[in-house]
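Sat 14:20. Reprocessing the chain from the morning session after the first attempt stalled halfway. Input below, unchanged.
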Amino acid sequence: MNTIGDYKLEEVLGKGSFGTAYKAIDPFTFEPVCVKVFRSSTDYAEVKESFRAEVKAASAGFDHDNVIRMKFAGKAKFNKNEDRYYIVSELADNGELFDFVNK
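Finished this time. Tokens:
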């Protein structure tokens, strides 16, 4: 089982160019959450900038039922190996946005 920080990553929700999103359980509230783990890269500056941009956008102060809220962002050991950036957010478990829009 994959881990990052205190989070046990249960299943892969999706993969993108900058990382992988996992379903996890918050170890403090026991609620399901989404944990996006940024990939390791030889281009560390690119990953770090992507992480900063996503954290900035997620913490811009939006408060709406249709906007997923960020719970935490940080850097920790991924599977007890290298440090990786990660973002913890609410879990939207109602399917793919693309499928919802095309109904």
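The beta strands are 2-4, 7-15, 19-25, 32-38, 70-77, 83-90.
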